[in-house]
Amino acid sequence: MITPAIEDRPQWADASAGQARAVTPGALDIAHGVILYLDEISVSFDGFKALNKLSLHIDVGELRCIIGPNGAGKTTMMDVITGKTRPDSGKAFFGQTLDLTRLKEPEIAHAGIGRKFQKPTVFEQHTVFENLELAMKMDKRVWRSLFYKLDSEARGRIETVMEQIRLTAQAHRLAGLLSHGQKQWLEIGMLLMQEPRLLLLDEPVAGMTDDETMRTAELFVSLAGQHSLVVVEHDMAFVEKLGGKVTVLHEGSVLAEGDLATVQADDRVIEVYLGR
Amino acid sequence: MRQSYTERSVRLLGPKGWTAMLAFLALMLIIVPAMHLLAPPDSALHVSNYAVTLTGKIMCYAMVAVAMDLIWGYAGILSLGHGLFFALGGYAFGMYLMRQIGLEGNYHSALPDFMVFLDWKALPWYWQGTDNVVWAIVLTVGVPTVVAGVFGYFAFQSRIKGVYFSIITQALTYAAMLLFFRNETGFGGNNGFTDFKRILGYSITAPETRVVLLGLTALALAGTLLLGRWLVTSRYGRVLAATRDAESRVMFIGYNPLWYKLFIWTLSAALCGVAGALYVPQVGIINPGEMSAASSIEIAIWVAVGGRGTLIGAVIGAVVVNLAKSWFTVSFPQYWLFFLGFLFILVTLFLPQGIVGLYQKLTQRRTPDAPNAPAPTEATPSTPLTQEHAA
């Protein structure tokens, strides 16, 4: 019943829009080991260049951190990837073939890009279990929902995700009663239920305690491999714990890239962060 | 398979709820009819015509209240136009009852009296076939469904929400009332339909007919409650409640709220139509007053008084308010509207969860550490049916 996103053939796949080359229409092609490819993306708002020829690529299964001062273009970059903002110029591809600049937001979500916003929005009047059930990848039309019966496979999936986000004990608690950190985890869990190939996480540990932050890092590290993750974060201890490649954005383009130690030693990065 | 089906049915209301439901049906299908038909009129056990009609009428209102609770309590859509769907169902079945009068009207014509009075020579096209009870039943459900479906599609498609939606529904029912007030519309103008003689050939005032209608109404109310309960405990109900709480989030995880809202909205209207069709033969009249703004607002008050998002609260609210209304309009007719307004303010200020909420608060206080963890598949913001609904 649950099919991975890459094998899906949604109805919009028939339209040739969204593909640069004719391979399998609508399917995610990761033959070259790259899941996300941004090339010279520029976005400007009333003359302000939010993104300035930004180029970046994320490998399959990679855990990438994006850091940078406020206004560096981190959120705009997320908006471009999810289709919320259209770039003025440049290319954005999901896998080899899906042109993100031409797909609509729901199509992008369906293709396998999941995004977690800064502010957690869970269904407060529903339990943790129900929140995950609602988010599950499945037929979401009215008729199916009316006669839906939770099978053991789906239940197993929900339980696995609850295990991952450490909320098994809270399964039947209303989500509104969870702590802020737990809500963030639940939101991540809801994202996982949609079985995305690429997860975009915007400041996932904002407002979490140190202990929760460390646990979140462990969770992300365990998710890398099966999923590709892009994490935007300010918390350097968290970024260090994640241990992946770090990209520093500044004024809408990539300033430096590499592991955290290399990036932190870079003179330009120090200049940007400490002021000139 | 059969086992799990039985299990699900039991869980739908819980043992207490089922006991109450069966007691209610036994009361309405056996005890009250027996007391009405068999007990001699001067006996203390006799149930009068007035009481039977009042019970039937209130059960029809209770059905409307449950339909209202489905969209207001569970989908967060406040309709101030539900009187329209009730009246449409009532008019649709009223047409059949008018045709059943046959030649016994004041003018002894095959046409309904008001048409003779207007000097009409033939039935308008929309009256064709209304002498057939099956077609009348189809209209009863179909007309409110189509009106609600078309209206709801455009309203939800345009993302009209909250108070704007409520005002538009209020305007809709008001416009319909003005239309039905006109004699030219062909529904009897401000007198509406009355003076019914027969239903399916049986005298409409006969005690036997009354108890059959009473029983049918009780079954319809029970059916509405079961259907509602089944809906809100299904995955559909959970998506609906999620739409109420955070619609954009629901869209983000891939549901289209339009169809979710439209389904419950249309179903709610159809249920009101059925209630209206059961109401008219028992009360014996339908006129455009049912479409007035005040009638629709009253429906919302019943649900608020009983407790939103509980289904059974809607029934309790409809029963309590309408019993109070029957008493007030006899004893102090001029004060009823003041009392209704006062009641609404009181409930809004002090009992936001209505009577059911008050009951829950009181019982929870008595047993503070009662385990309250619901089962995984039936946990909803609603509460299980409690035993009060045989009121």
TrEMBL record, chain A:
A Pfam entry, by short name: ABC_tran
Q: What is the superkingdom listed in this entry's lineage?
A: Bacteria
Q: Which InterPro entries match?
A: ABC_AA/LPS_Transport, ABC_transporter-like_ATP-bd, ABC_transptr_urea_ATP-bd_UrtD, BCA_ABC_TP_C, P-loop_NTPase
| Top class in the EC scheme | hydrolase
| Protein name, per record | Ribose import ATP-binding protein RbsA
For this UniProt entry, the molecular function terms from Gene Ontology, in alphabetical order, are: ATP binding; ATP hydrolysis activity
Alphabetized, the UniProt keywords read: ATP-binding, Hydrolase, Nucleotide-binding, Transport
Q: Does the keyword Hydrolase apply?
A: yes
Residue ranges occupied by any ABC transporter domain in the UniProt entry? 36-276
Q: Which GO terms describe its cellular component?
A: plasma membrane
Which EC number(s) does the record attach to this protein?
A: 3.6.3.17
Automatic annotation (TrEMBL), chain B:
What kind of membrane protein is this, topologically? Multi-pass membrane protein
Composition bias (Low complexity) maps to 369-391
GO MF terms held by the record? branched-chain amino acid transmembrane transporter activity
For this protein, the record's InterPro entries field holds: ABC_transp_permease (IPR001851), ABC_transptr_urea_perm_UrtC (IPR017778), LivM-like (IPR043428)
What Gene Ontology cellular component terms go with this record? plasma membrane
Tree of life domain: Bacteria
What subcellular locations does the record give?
Cell membrane
* Keywords tagged on the record: Cell membrane, Membrane, Transmembrane, Transmembrane helix
Q: Which residues cross the membrane?
A: 20-38, 50-68, 74-98, 133-156, 163-181, 211-232, 258-279, 299-323, 335-359
Q: Where is this region: Disordered?
A: 367-391
ATP-binding: is it a keyword of this entry?
A: no
Q: What is its main location?
A: membrane
UniProt cross-references to NCBIfam families, sorted A to Z: urea_trans_UrtC (TIGR03408)
- Write down what this protein is called: Leucine/isoleucine/valine transporter permease subunit
